[in-house]
Amino acid sequence: MERVDTYDVCFQISGADMNPDDISEQLGLSPDECFSPHESTGMRNGATIERASSDIGTWVIRGISETEPIPKQIEQILVILRPLKEKLLNIKKTGLNMRFYCGYFADDSTAGLSLSNDLMMEMGSLGINFDISFYCNLQVRVAEGNNA
Q1: What is the C-alpha to C-alpha distance for residues 84 and 78, in angstroms, rounded to an integer?
Q2: Count of domains in the chain?
Q3: What is the pLDDT of residue 27?
Q4: Which domain holds residue 16?
């Protein structure tokens, strides 16, 4: 059976004192997902969703497809963010956190990622951090008799 890795890529602005509506107004964009601090409901793609209440508010733009590689999804989101550079840097000055969060769900026991220095430099020039979590399928390796 063919193995297929999947990815969860999103750009997030978050902080304890943030109002997602203020971020939308400053950027002139609607998020794919947002939560206000201390509230247990939020919005995802226009629908109300539940979550555990948190002290942190979050404003999110999601990647294009869970099967597209991480660099391609980051690049697609940067197409949206590039014209907003000054606005993003002003938001960063307020103390809010901006990051690309990437979840890499490997359908194998090993996974790897390569980002070009141009892509990393562009994220840095916008004040955006990069976080990645790898989730590897250890069951595949055991099933194949290779548990090294």
Answers
A1: 10
A2: 1
A3: 97
A4: 6-143
Q: Could you give the angle at which helices 117-125 and 70-81 cross, rounded to 10 degrees?
A: 40
Residue-wise pLDDT for 49-88, tens only, equals 666 667 888 999 998 888 888 999 999 999 999 999 999 9
Q: Which pTM value belongs to this model?
A: 0.82
Residue 1 included in any domain: no
**148 domain-assigned:** no
Residues 10, 59: Cα–Cα separation, whole Å? 10
Separation in Å, CA 116 to CA 10, 70, 92, 96, 122: 18, 12, 24, 26, 10
- Contact between 31 and 137 under an 8 Å Cβ cutoff? The reply is no
Q: Extract the tokens encoding 79.
A: 């197409």
